[in-house]
Amino acid sequence: MTLEDILSKVGEFEDAVLSFVDEDGYPFSLPAEFSVTASGKIHLTRPEALKQSLAGRRVNVIFNSITPLPGGGYTDRRYIVLWGEVAEEGDSLLFSPDRHYGWNECEVPFPQYCESSVPQARRYMKRLREEENKQVEPHLPAPWLILRATRLPFLVATWIPVLLGTAFAAFNGFFDLSLFILTVLGASLAHLGVNTANDFFDHRHGADMINVTPTPYSGGSRVIQYGLVSPNQMLGTSVTSVALAAMIGLYLAFTRGFAEILLLIAVGTFLIFFYTASPIRLVYHGLGELAVAFAFGPLIVMGTYFVQAQAFSLQAVLASLPVGILVAMILYVNEIPDIRWDREAGKKTLPVLLDKENILKGHTWSLAVTYGVVLLGVASGMMPPITMLMLAAVPYAVKVHRSVEETFGDPYAMMPTMASNIRLMILTGILLTTAYVLATLFPL
Prior knowledge:
Layout: H1 3-10, E1 16-21, E2 27-32, E3 34-36, E4 42-45, E5 58-68, E6 74-89, E7 92-104, H2 110-116, H3 118-132, H4 142-150, H5 156-171, H6 177-205, H7 231-256, H8 258-274, H9 288-309, H10 314-335, H11 339-344, H12 350-353, H13 356-380, H14 394-407, H15 415-441
Antiparallel strand pairs: 1-2, 1-5, 3-4, 4-7, 5-6, 6-7
């Protein structure tokens, strides 16, 4: 915003505070009445408490407004800070601003304001390191840093399809607890590799850096942007996680089926890195949602089933589709608040490529297919009738879709929507998994 724009807003304030450092080096702040001149200068009535001359001095003038709320807290927070020199005209001061900054909560929400200040904070930390000649870094306690950097809560998107694949295998007469534990561990490590790799490559491509409206569900973990973890540390974490997952995968390959599991490992590794890595960058070419649907649906469910049964199954693929689609819908909905920033970064997610009407239609049809699969599966005999238990989640799915429509585009208003969307995937996955467990325990 230009200085002219700022000066046009000064008249919206009732109070001004004149601040300066006196001749003895002490800071002073005094209230002052003001008016803006036609030439763009600010006329200040000389405060009675001001006993010294400020002619030619550099001063600071602050305009501030805040509205207290009856129940506590504040709203309508806004301020303008101006710097410049003062000339004296009798009992008046003529202030010529040449530097400015400010904030209006009605225009920029507080979380966005904080995020926009991150580059300035990093410059300050750098200057502090140079002045103090020692390492001064922002930090979090290790448990919180690990939780944030890896986005551990999102592992539920892996655990649900693993549970479903295991339940489907048990339904077909195959279950080994040790193989289940290895599968959960290997898939979880692979997912951590995905999360950290995405952060590294999105930072490298500039997608996260320009995003000033992140939420706990969108915009990445932010640990690189906040200086909590270096890009190389994030990449190292990803490589280590994927390597450990691959070791578990190789053990399973040698004991359960070498060629088949090796193929699953290769496909999974490809999707982990080339989801955001050059030169393929699937998510930058409108293929990210499809890749996620495949990875968290058929790939994990089929892989889990194969580890238990040492065979592939078309029925397992069909059973995997609802969970795969809903995990992709987590990504799809979480991308909506990032549309502006992804577009600027050249990241062609489906919400970037579509308009609002078609984004909502895409969500509607995805939910329809999700719950239509079980009807198709039961009607064709490929899924037991009890799997229709999954349809108990339909009313909640309708509620989530309405929430997406009502909060569309507002990053902070969408936060409860994004949380509900994750719960929808969990609820549906648990219902479908429970159905297969019940069908195993109580066969018809």
